[in-house]
Amino acid sequence: PEQKTRKYHRVQINGVGYLPEPPSSCIVRAVPSRPGAVPVLSGPCAQPPFIPPQGTRDHHPAQMTLLGRLLGTVVSCFKRHGAAAIDTPVMELREMLMEKYGDNSKLIYELQDQGGELLALRYDLTVPFARYLAMNKITNIKRYHIAKVYRRDSPAMTRGRYREFYQCDFDIAGQFDPMIPDAECLKIVHEILSELQIGDFLIKVNDRRILNGMFAICGIPESKLVTMCSTLDKLDKMPWEEVRSEMVGEKGLSPEAVDRVGEYVQLHGGMDLIEQLLQDPKLSQNKMAKEGLEDMKLLFEYLTLFGITGKVSFDLSLARGLDYYTGVIYEAVLLQQQNNHGEESVGVGSVAGGGRYDGLVGMFDPKGRKVPCVGVSIGIERIFSILEHRMKASREKVRTTETQVMVATPQKHLLSARLKLISELWDAGIKAEMMYRKDPKLLKQLQYCEDTGIPLVAIIGEEELKDGVVKLRDVATREEVNIPREELAAEIRRRLEP
């Protein structure tokens, strides 16, 4: 359905944005001309709906805690495999991004600065990485990058699809023996999805050379290869009949050629299928396809050594519609499953994808020097949607802070004692909080600990000050014990730190 366009006044709000146009029933009252003055609305829309743009969202503390755990798992895996972190600008020159994504280039957000320079928000983290390699003349690196990317897509936020979302990328750049780095990327996907325990999954693999060879023997013109991949990439969302109709109707391909493609894209399997296709009288005679199949055979040998072939399927329907892929491509999808909590399942599509892109760096190098690259991107927002849905269904309470101890007082006029004690704890590296009141009631302080999950309370009253001790209370058991003040930090660590 066509999206409604939001209209705006050309009245700037504090130099930041514009008010949405109010309905005719609203009146915009004039205000004196002064710095920072804003229009005043009256009528049924006196409070304008200041909400995030479509396809974006705010994250509250519980969500950020869950996201932090998720990213921590991913980063831990990337580091385990020896990757170093990099960062690139959220904006790139427009011409740098265009023509790299096939039909998806229309989803790029374009910008223009005051000087007229044409910019664009990054669509992914791969093309900026290739630009970074070429600009810095780097020929060998293993990197990871976690950052937000932007796409003018039709969002389906309940299914984990957004216009602004995180990507978690791992890439290996350099000249190495065939399929060893590619196999490691698939191993990383397997490790992350297994550790997150989000359900059964399957990693589909294919090769652009096999696809291009298949298209050639089926009679697809070379000029249509890129658009064919983009269309074939829709098979995970549409049945073959609809994809076939698009190929014939919109792409102008002959029904006979498309039907020949249809026979191949139904095939999926493992080493047996690779051996079968190597004996295929037509496919085995195509040089590109044969190279791709031989590398696919080698890849499966390495995956067997890694012990992950049970979760990997060679799938001839996998295309991945991005222009820059040159060899092996892969995509991880969650399999339909019965959930444990009786809630409606969340459909999220693919949760990871990637492949080999040996020619991309050369596009940015003045001399066209190529740097072979292979990588994978983890779809963190989609995985987050599953975990968030599961958390809500189980009514699990998420602790949003890491505070170890609450500094409390039982009597009035002891603010200075609290401030001194909490300062000592902070200086000792203890995560501590206190209430921002001069004389808070002890019951309120204890209740705050129960509500927020703070495990310990350090109570300092007149008696404790006189004896040089602090009463340490366990919030869960309500047991209290006096600890010498100079030993308090060590005792908190002993109780809480593993």
At a glance:
The protein has helices at 61-80, 94-97, 126-135, 180-196, 208-218, 225-232, 240-249, 255-265, 271-278, 287-306, 380-394, 415-427, 442-452, 462-467, 488-496, and strands spanning 8-13, 17-20, 27-29, 40-42, 84-85, 91-93, 110-112, 118-121, 141-150, 164-173, 201-207, 268-269, 312-315, 328-334, 350-356, 373-378, 405-408, 432-433, 456-459, 469-474, 480-484. With 498 residues, it is α+β, with helices and mostly antiparallel strands.
Sheet-strand content, in percent, reads 15-25%
Low-confidence stretches: 1-42, 341-347
Describe the global form.
elongated
Strand order within the widest beta sheet = 5-9-10-16-15-14-11-13-12
Beta strands, count: 21
Rg, alpha carbons:
29 Å
The pLDDT mean sits at 86
Q: What is the tally of helical segments?
A: 15
> What distance lies between the first and last C-alpha atoms, to the nearest angstrom?
54 Å
Instruction: Summarize the biggest pleated sheet.
Output: 9 strands, mixed
Helical proportion? 25-40%
Helix/strand structural class: alpha+beta
Protein name: histidine--tRNA ligase
Family: Belongs to the class-II aminoacyl-tRNA synthetase family.
InterPro entries: aa-tRNA-synth_II (IPR006195), aa-tRNA-synth_II/BPL/LPL (IPR045864), Anticodon-bd (IPR004154), Anticodon-bd_dom_sf (IPR036621), His-tRNA-ligase (IPR015807), HisRS-like_core (IPR041715), HisRS/HisZ (IPR004516), HisRS_anticodon (IPR033656)
Binding site for L-histidine: 124-126, 151, 167, 171, 320, 324-325
Question: Which key features would you list for this structure?
Answer:
five-stranded mixed beta sheet; disordered N terminus; nine-stranded mixed beta sheet; 15 helices; alpha+beta; 498 residues
